[in-house]
Amino acid sequence: MPSAAAALEVSGFAGWVAELLARRGIEDPASADAFLHPAMDHLHDPGQLAGMAEAVDRLIAAKNAGHEVALVGDYDVDGVTGCAILVAVLRACGLVVHPIIPHRMHDGYGFQPVHVERALELGVQLLITVDCGVSSHAAAAASLDAGIEVIVTDHHLPGEPLPEKVIQINPHQDCCSYPFGELSGAGLALKLAVAAAKAFERVIDPRLLVRVACLGTIADLVPLRGENRAIAAIGLEELARTRSPGLKALIEVAGLKPPFTAADVGFRLGPRLNAPGRLDSAEGALDLLLCRDPQHARRLAGELDQWNRDRQQEQRRVVTEAREALTADRDSLPAILVAWKETWHRGVVGVAAGRLAKELNRPTILLAVDGDQATGSGRSIPGIHLHDFLKQWDSDLLRFGGHAQAIGMTVKATELEDLRRHWQEAAEVWRERVDVRRFEYELELTPRQINHQLFNQLSDFEPFGQGNRQPLIRIPGPLHLERSPRFFGQGHLSAQAMDRNGGRIALLGWGWQERSASLEGEFEVLGYLEKDRYRGSVVRLVDCRPFAAADNNTKANGLGEDDLGEEGS
Question: Do residues 364 and 406 both lie within one domain?
Answer without folding.
Answer: yes
